[in-house]
Structures are given as C-alpha cells and as structure tokens.
C-alpha cells in the first residue's frame, strides 16, 4: 500500500489543522489505517486509527481533541486536530498497523510536519 500525507504546517497553541492521507495499491474499503507521530529521538507513536467499518481508536493524549474519518470515494483518511498543544509538535505519518494492532507498524508514508507554537 502507498500512503501520501498532506496538510501539516505551523499553528499556534489552541489552533486546528487537518491532515489528509491518500491510500493506493490495495482496496481502500478493506484497509485499517491510522495516524502516528514521531518526535526527534523517540519512536513512532500511534495517535489514532480507523477500521474498515468506520470504528475508531484514539490514543489517550488526543482523546476529545482529534477526530479521524475516512472517505471511501476519495481513498482518503483525515485527522482533524483541534485544541493543539506544543507537545503535539511532531512529524505525523499515515500508517497501517502491524500484527499487534495500534502497537506495531506495517507501512507508512513520507510524513508531514506539524509544529505548534506556544
């Protein structure tokens, strides 16, 4: 599967951003997809995920602030990020989970930088 992210940028604390990820190479309707992030010196961390049936997963640090969604007509998933905090600053990757759901990773895109200023 190929994953291409877009939508990162610089935003002030309390602001919002929406990330997009276009998936190709496999039937979109069958894919479990998600968003992960990485800060310098640390590993990838799952932020949110969405199942093929539309049910969702959120990490504790983003619950109530981020919303994940999918649009099958556009082979795209989105991450609406609200109430952003400086600690949300990271490179965000669109990814597919590995064997251990929301722990392991199978594939990921090139990433998009999100910077939240205080």
Task: State Rg.
Answer: 13 Å
Count helical runs. 0
Helix content: under 10%
Question: What can be said about the biggest beta sheet?
Answer: 7 strands, mixed
Mean pLDDT across every amino acid position: 97
Fold and architecture overview:
- 0% of the residues lie in helices and 53% in strands.
- The protein has strands at residues 2-6, 9-12, 17-24, 33-38, 45-50, 56-58, 66-71, 76-81, 90-97, 105-108, 112-117.
- The chain is built from no helices and 11 strands.
- The radius of gyration is 13 Å and the shape is globular.
At a glance:
The chain is mostly beta strands. The chain is built from no helices and 11 strands.
Present the secondary structure layout.
Elements: E1 2-6, E2 9-12, E3 17-24, E4 33-38, E5 45-50, E6 56-58, E7 66-71, E8 76-81, E9 90-97, E10 105-108, E11 112-117
Parallel strand pairs: 2-11
Antiparallel strand pairs: 1-3, 3-8, 4-5, 4-9, 5-6, 7-8, 9-10, 9-11
């Amino acid at each position: 599967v190929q994953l291409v992210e877009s939508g990162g940028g610089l935003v002030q604390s309390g602001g919002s951003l929406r990330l997009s990820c276009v998936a190709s190479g496999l039937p979109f309707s069958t894919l479990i997809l998600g968003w992960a992030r990485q800060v310098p010196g640390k590993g990838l961390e799952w932020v949110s995920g969405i199942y093929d049936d539309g049910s969702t997963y959120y990490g504790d640090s983003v619950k109530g602030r981020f919303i994940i969604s999918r649009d099958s007509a556009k082979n795209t998933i989105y991450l609406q990020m609200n109430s952003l905090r400086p600690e949300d600053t990271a490179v965000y990757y669109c990814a597919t989970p590995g064997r251990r759901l929301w722990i392991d990773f199978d594939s990921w895109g090139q990433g998009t930088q999100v910077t939240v200023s205080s």
